[in-house]
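Q: Second attempt. The first request was missing the SMILES, so the protein and adenosine-5'-triphosphate are both included now.
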Amino acid sequence: MSKVAPIITPDSFDFRQYMAETEPQAKVLGAETWRDSLIDAVKNGTTVTGARLPWAKTHDHIRFRGGEVSLWQGINGHGKSQMLGQACMGFAGQGEPVCIASFEMKPVSTLKRMLRQAAMNDQPGETMAARFMDWLQGKFWLYDQLGTVRPEMIYAVIRYCADKLKIKHIVIDSLMKCVRGEDDYNGQKDFVDMLTGLARDLDVHIHLVHHVRKGENEEKVPGKFDAKGSGAISDQVDQVLTVWRNKKKEKTIASLLRKNQPVDDETRSSPDAMLVVDKNRHGEWEGSVALWYHPQSLQYTPDNRCAPLDMLGVYR
Ligand SMILES: Nc1ncnc2c1ncn2[C@@H]1O[C@H](COP(=O)(O)OP(=O)(O)OP(=O)(O)O)[C@@H](O)[C@H]1O
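A: Got both inputs this time. The predicted holo structure:
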């Protein structure tokens, strides 16, 4: 068995086959079709279903189900890709295979970051790297293309991932690399429309990374109305999550340390990052999740003890 995480490239399969539309499906079906689903929903009451984030305190609030699209937005450098990488390891560990299509980071850079998260430290050795690669087999794929990409290619990649590889979570990082520009509102609307249709038809969850407009400052947590480009982006997706980094805390600590002064408890215990959910179409909960950053492992942790999680073993 190969010991590298499978990398999908534009040359590694026949994209044309997956670009072609399939036969139009009959979309008008008798209500009876949904009998079992309705009865299951009644039986399970308000049970929340779907893949979980790595932090137990989020499990009753936010989940990631097939058929839906989540927008992961935030200011540049606030940790969207890093947090999503940790979340994806968690999805894979729950038995839901993942493909990351990053047009901003090389596959090996994504893997290096995830390796530190898996190792729970900043200096994983060869043995850990080999163990990590073994763990990824059959769970994790990366699409290798940097720069801009045509929407038709994304369409083909998603269909290939779902049909052939049985992948359940697909990350598109980021939206602006898939459209003509920030002012191409129709292109953005059509692209997100395509993603919602594909997610529904293929029963996969699509995680779409997106930037927010520059606000007055980085200390203000952006909301769903701050997404760059068309307002239709957040209207169309099922969930909007904002990743926000507490730069004010970082600056305060750096300044105290420079002056050889102790860091007070209040500053120390305030969260390093927040994950804000301000749209949750199929759940009732909206709110903020406080997280603490463990810099050695690049992991987000659930409380101010800052103890990294065993991402490879947590769901066994
Ligand atoms: N809360 C944090 N504390 C300290 N460093 C952080 C924090 N969040 C992210 N970083 C660091 O900031 C850098 C950027 O992270 P990342 O690439 O995930 O951000 P991003 O939001 O995806 O950025 P971009 O929009 O530019 O792609 C990384 O080096 C990461 O380790």
